[in-house]
């Protein structure tokens, strides 16, 4: 009998927690949005559209046409505000009010329930770790032209050699492009973090990269059941298959980084010589070992989460953008030809394109901007406001989960006219054939304001050098005996292309000269 009573009270408590919005206390009139069902909020409407095969960001785009570019949703017990066009997105990204990340659900799980790392931390922890990371990486070449150029070119040369071997070994020069750039993209940042590069044939690394790829496909901002009902994180931590997969993923990744940290600690070299980011961080851990308060930002757990942040940035965002770039290139031979003509005209054929060439290659730059717009590898991400915000007659309560839809900003008919057409020329001034900075500014792939991506300079250099160098050396075409490549992306926190093959033909270098 006693357990029946406990069960009744527990169920009542759970329903009450689910029924009431858990993350905000409304202090005024809320933004308009669709009808909210008791307990479920707007989950029924979202589920209905999802069953039709629509991606979440497409559903949000359609809803915004009815409720406005700033609208509200109740994702279960979580109150959300959706920011949906270029102006709304720019306002949020550049606002100090929306400086925080929204932290709940799996974000807390990945960081041991604490505000760790740089991607999803807030407040003093975020400020300190961001400053430390930028300063330390800069000491090892990050952001310095000569050092950065050399690091990229070393990895680029290795990858082109790998491409040459794949072409030689394959039938009809057909190359499988999925994950082709993953290891190289990671190596550029990892050489600064750990002082070494991974082999493309490293089995352990391939397993970790695949784990990372799988988990980002299973997660999307604002879709997790734990986001809808955060109380379930404490009640049933492995509530869904995704939850189990996520837990297994974190165990594997944290284990890999922990082993690396312990190996370096046991070597002891870092105490006298700091060779890379890990050595510097280990020294900081030792220097702060006496601080047992929550204000100690230099701990083993902090490193594990920080390393995971770097690993994610290295393996997913840059590599996925490059995959999309060559997918769109082979599907648009006219664009490929114009990029190659510009490369041949500007770049010394005896060497690789330099990031200094970017300013003299507007069409190549415009093409990469169009790739970032068309691909939108991070279609949705979250922010949170640190104080109430008045929007006309409405109030957005402090602590709201703000969903920033880069997809909507990148596919707005009002902003782009023909958003579903891949057209690099939209970024060029017709009269001067130079980049139109006003149009370029609409692409916010790296964010704005104080939360702008710290690796923006390195990422842009990577994209340009890899893209221009490969098109200087090869031509990409559709593989005739394979399915036509699809531009419909694999959904996830970070989107990537579906697997595709390409015919990769070495260009006639003598003709280029």
Automatic annotation (TrEMBL):
Residues 1-18 form the signal peptide. Pfam families: p450 (PF00067). It is a peripheral membrane protein. GO terms for molecular function: heme binding; iron ion binding; oxidoreductase activity, acting on paired donors, with incorporation or reduction of molecular oxygen, reduced flavin or flavoprotein as one donor, and incorporation of one atom of oxygen; steroid hydroxylase activity. GO terms for biological process: organic acid metabolic process; xenobiotic metabolic process. It is found in: Endoplasmic reticulum membrane; Microsome membrane. GO terms for cellular component: endoplasmic reticulum membrane. InterPro entries: Cyt_P450, Cyt_P450_CS, Cyt_P450_E_grp-I, Cyt_P450_sf, Cytochrome_P450_fam2. Its cofactor is heme. Keywords: Endoplasmic reticulum, Heme, Iron, Membrane, Metal-binding, Microsome, Monooxygenase, Oxidoreductase, Signal. Heme binds at residue 453. Its main location: endoplasmic reticulum. May be involved in the metabolism of insect hormones and in the breakdown of synthetic insecticides. Belongs to the cytochrome P450 family. This is Methyl farnesoate epoxidase. The lineage of its organism: Eukaryota, Metazoa, Ecdysozoa, Arthropoda, Hexapoda.
């Amino acid at each position: 009998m006693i357990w029946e009573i406990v069960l009744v009270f527990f169920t009542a408590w759970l329903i009450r927690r689910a029924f009431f919005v858990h993350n905000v206390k409304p202090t005024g009139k809320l933004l308009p949005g669709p009808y909210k069902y008791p307990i479920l909020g707007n989950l029924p409407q979202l589920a209905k559209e999802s069953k039709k095969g629509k991606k979440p960001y497409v559903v949000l785009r359609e809803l915004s046409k009815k409720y406005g570019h700033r609208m509200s949703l109740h994702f279960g017990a979580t109150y959300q505000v959706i920011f949906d066009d270029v102006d709304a997105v720019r306002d949020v990204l550049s606002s100090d009010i929306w400086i925080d990340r929204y932290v709940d659900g799996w974000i807390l799980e990945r960081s041991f329930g604490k505000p760790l790392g740089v991607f999803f931390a807030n407040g003093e922890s975020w400020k300190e770790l961001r400053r430390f990371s930028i300063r330390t990486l800069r000491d090892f070449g990050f952001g310095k032209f000569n050092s950065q150029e050399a690091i990229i070119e070393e990895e680029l040369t290795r990858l082109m050699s790998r491409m040459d071997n794949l072409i030689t070994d394959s039938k009809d020069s057909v190359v499988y492009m999925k994950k082709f750039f993953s290891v190289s993209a990671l190596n550029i940042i990892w050489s600064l973090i750990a002082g070494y590069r991974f082999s493309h044939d490293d089995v352990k690394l391939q397993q970790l990269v695949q784990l990372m790829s799988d988990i980002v496909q299973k997660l999307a901002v604002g879709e997790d059941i734990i986001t809808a009902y955060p109380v379930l994180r404490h009640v049933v931590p492995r509530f869904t298959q995704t939850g189990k997969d996520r837990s297994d993923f974190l165990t594997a990744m944290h284990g890999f980084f922990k082993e690396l940290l312990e190996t370096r600690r046991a070597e002891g070299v870092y105490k006298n010589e700091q060779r890379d980011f890990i050595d510097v961080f280990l020294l900081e851990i030792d220097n702060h070992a006496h601080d047992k308060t929550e204000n100690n930002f230099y701990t083993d757990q902090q490193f594990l989460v920080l390393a995971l942040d770097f690993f994610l940035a290295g393996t997913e965002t840059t590599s996925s953008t490059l995959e999309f770039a060559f997918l769109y290139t082979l599907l648009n031979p006219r664009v490929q030809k114009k990029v190659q003509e510009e490369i041949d005209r500007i770049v010394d054929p005896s060497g690789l394109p330099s990031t200094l060439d970017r300013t003299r290659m507007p069409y190549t730059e415009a093409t990469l901007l169009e790739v970032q717009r068309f691909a939108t590898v991070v279609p949705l991400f979250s922010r949170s406001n640190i104080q109430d915000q008045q929007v006309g007659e409405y109030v957005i309560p402090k602590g709201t989960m703000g969903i920033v839809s880069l997809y909507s900003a990148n596919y707005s008919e009002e902003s782009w006219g023909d958003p579903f057409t891949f057209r690099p020329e939209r970024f060029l001034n017709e009269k001067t054939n130079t980049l139109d900075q006003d149009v370029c500014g609409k692409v916010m792939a790296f964010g704005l304001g104080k939360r702008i991506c710290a690796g923006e300079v390195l990422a842009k250099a990577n994209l340009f050098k890899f893209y221009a160098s490969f098109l200087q050396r090869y031509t990409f075409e559709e593989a005739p005996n394979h399915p036509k490549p699809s531009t419909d992306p694999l959904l996830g926190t970070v989107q990537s292309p579906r697997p595709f093959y390409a015919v990769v033909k070495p260009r006639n270098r003598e003709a280029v000269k």
